[in-house]
Queue: 2 jobs
Job 1
Amino acid sequence: MLPILMLHNANAESTLKEIRAKGVLTVCMDIRNLPYSNADPELPGLYVEIAHLLAEELGVKLELHWLDTLRDSLLADMIRGHCDCVIGVPIEERAMAEAIQLGKRVDFSKPFYGTGYVLVKRKDNRQAPKKLEDIKLETIGAEGGSIASDVLRQQGYNRRVYGSQIAVLNALQKGQIAYGCIWANAGWLIEKGSRIQQTEQMRRVYPELEIVEGYVPEPRLRWNVAIAFSKDTPTRKTRELQDVVNTIIEEKWSDESLKALCQKYHLPYFAPFQEEEQK
């Protein structure tokens, strides 16, 4: 049986060669997940723009395989062969439960940026804490069930729990809490509000609020973000594509260009966190 298996592997199709032969890179993407992705080409989202950059570096066209992640799984659809990769997957066990459920069927590129939970405050609050310890006695709002909520509780902070990130921002705007500790899309929510449906927007713009400048999410509140691929199988080889993408991330994508894209969508940019690379 061994010689047959080896022959099968030797003749396995290379995903990279297939992409270049077709001239198309297919990426699974959430149809409605601003500021990260959106089917409207006028406002595509950060990960869609990064997908375009990747296709451009590969010298092929981009095709987006749209999914509604309220019902479908991007990673599972990739494993089924409906796309070549998924962009924007966190490399952290606490934030990648879906990848763990899929077992050892997913590989990751090198991280292209870092993200996590940020602090938000009212603009009339002149303090700019650099770490959570600086606001140990202040009331901090967090979304119930979030990692931030768990960390604040475990570390004994004066935590107040709300049903959503929007509820945290509302409480902060009313002065009911001193800070909010919410996901990195806080800047988008402050500037643009929350999009519920493609044709309908619920805007809650908060001119009184801002992300705390200079605060970097602490180790338990941060992780790196990468591109996911299906692992090699007896009939399909993805490692070559993964290696080429790693080279593009390392040599072609600069901190300045990625930071500019993040700023376009009111997202904070953090270079990949070193402790994640050492895991």
Note: Confidence is low (pLDDT under 50) at residues 1-10, 196-202.
Job 2
Amino acid sequence: MTPEAKTYDTGRLFREICDTLFILCVPAHLNGYDYLVSAIMRVALDRGYLRAITKRLYPEVGEEFSRAPQIIERSIRNAIETAFNRGDPDVLNAYFGRTISADKGKPTNSEFIALVAQRVTLKLGQTELSAAR
């Protein structure tokens, strides 16, 4: 764990990530969905992963699922592409707005993972603050 590591109720974090991916129309039947959930969980708990996506994040997710890091990267990219091809453009734009490249029309894997992790942790942080009051 890096100094940036946070602690959250992992059950709530998992549910929030799954709910967000559902809203974004990431199909749950794709392998990339499971890899995304794992990657987002790791980033939500430790933002240090964002500085080492290919060197640390993909290899660790690959180890969890007994897959090569290249398969993890490609499957995540496929899940994101599928969501952007099938999803509601208004919802996707509300979530990703300016991060979407005009050339590609979708965020990169790391942009997607970082943004979803940030939104989920912010939402959980707000929930914990309101519960403490």
Note: The first helix runs from residue 10 to 23.
